[in-house]
Amino acid sequence: MSLDLHDLGGRPVIVGGGVAGLMTALYLAPEPTVLLTKTPLGGDSSTVLAQGGLAASLGADDCPDLHLADTLAAGDGLCDEAAARRIVEAAPRAIDGLERLGVRFDREPDGAPRLGLEAAHSRRRIVHAAGDATGRELARALAEAVRRTPSITVLEGIEARRLIMEGGAIAGVLAASGSSLFALASHRVVLATGGIGGLFHDTTNPLGSWGQGLALAARAGAELADLEFVQFHPTALDGPHRPMALVSEAVRGEGAVLVDERGQRFLAGTPGRELAPRDVVARAVWHQLLAGHRVFLDARQCLGSRFAQRFPAIAHLCHVAGIDPTVEPIPIRPAAHYHMGGVAVDAESRSSVGGLWACGEVACTGLHGANRLASNSLIEAVVSAASTAQSVGAIPAGVRRCLPPTIIPPRPDPASIRPIFSHALGIVRDDETLREAATALLPLAVGCEATADPAAVALMIAVAALRREESRGAHFRSDFTGRNAQPCSSRLTLDETIETSEELADVVQPLARSA
Fold it and tell me: Kindly report the CA angle at 95 between 89 and 97, in degrees rounded to 5?
């Protein structure tokens, strides 16, 4: 590569070009900062695909305390209340800050914010942009703001392969561009790499979002938290394309109902009905599919001819699939959508490894608990980016020579991991299937092939799911359907995971031979 890496040495390095990474870079300005992104800036990321909005208590009938109560209820006993309060109280100011950066939010004719309703919210508090294209508008505005900021050096088409360690702390980033490898010296690295949806076959996330940041952190020895909690969106457009197109929860917020192929509304007797927490709705849809039914989202009565005006992006996706939502219901099925777990961080986004921060979906702040409240993720990324930047900026700059590892990992490929992971870590889990998955993933995770990093992330999630012998939030065990009396967060390192998996393999293999 034709880069003067010496000039970039010592700057904070942000890995990831979604809303969390872009906002962290902007908050760090005017300190010189390096932003690494695998795709073109503002391109293929979970942010761009986000149809939902940002949750903030902006309505006259709303307040942060109500927003907090809804967040804690959805989190099913595992939210960090202090972290959740800090984020929901900062949310209205964050919306103002985004508008100053050029984000164009939807407004009513009188100029007030247009507020939508989504599942498990007691008030209309979802702020959207361009109807159902909030993520695309955020990415556009923030990418333009980053390009206008001279202190931010953007390196596009760059993939971080390893965090370089020295004395147990971060010393730099080993990165790749095509076949070229280079090391960036830095004792301040921020992971903003998004989620793990790319490990599943049915996902609404970009297929490249397979948990890269979790692998980087885990290989560096960082502690990860609540990995077993994966949220499945109940209404992804049922079709052959991957990633799957999302049919936003806001459609149900406008009154659309879920029906089977006979037109039977199977959630009518469920508390909250179509706007029950996502884990409840996703499991209900899954059970219908398991019983041989098809499931549809019917918006004909509530929206009808207004569908395309209210949800232009979804209307286009339906049109491409040959569906007219004004006159026919939309076929849907659940898909992996959001990871509540991630790198364990404190209130300043610091991980357990010196010099390493995490922000956005890759981090576990404690806001989401066992089940994310709809539209809390984008606002979490924006709010957390501010505290991340403040913490990173408080560390003095310093340049030290950075020695790259002697073993260069290959470009990760999660393709062969997806069938194992999708089968074991779906909406309903059980001991036997999780053990089989862990045993299959272990040799891949400790190997040196392209599957190693995706397998390591998948293995950590499988072991975390095995350890949680209860059903809580988005984690449902068919063999442990009850809830433990004392909810507790889970913590795990890669070394602990491998040790546990080796013990499991010793048990499973003799059983297989005896069978």
Answer: 105
For residue 152, the SS3 value is strand
Are the C-beta atoms of 190 and 358 separated by less than 8 Å?
yes
Q: Per the structure block, which two tokens stand in for 138?
A: 């955020």
Enumerate domains of the chain plus CATH numbers: 5-195+340-393 (3.50.50.60), 233-335 (3.90.700.10), 405-514 (1.20.58.100)
What are the tens digits of pLDDT across the range 255-269? Answer: 999 999 999 999 999
- Give the predicted TM-score (pTM) of the model: 0.93
Would you name the residues annotated as active-site residues? Answer: 278
- What confidence tens digit (pLDDT) does each residue in 210-251 have? 999 999 999 999 999 999 999 999 999 999 999 999 998 889
* CB of 119 closer than 8 Å to CB of 277: yes
Contacts of 144 (CB under 8 A, 6+ apart): 42, 102
**Residue 377 and residue 338 in contact, taking contact as beta carbons nearer than 8 Å:** yes
CA angle 85, 91, 95 (to 5 degrees): 175
- Give the closest residue to 77 by CA, choosing from 369, 376, 481, 373: 369
Q: What φ, ψ does residue 166 adopt, rounded to 5°? A: -150, 120
Q: How far is CA 12 from the centre of its chain?
A: 23
pLDDT, tens digit (0-9, with 9 covering 90-100), for 272-323? 999 888 889 999 999 999 999 999 999 999 999 999 999 998 999 999 999 9
411 burial via Cβ count (<10 Å: 0-12, 13-18, 19+):
exposed
Task: Give the chain's length.
Answer: 515
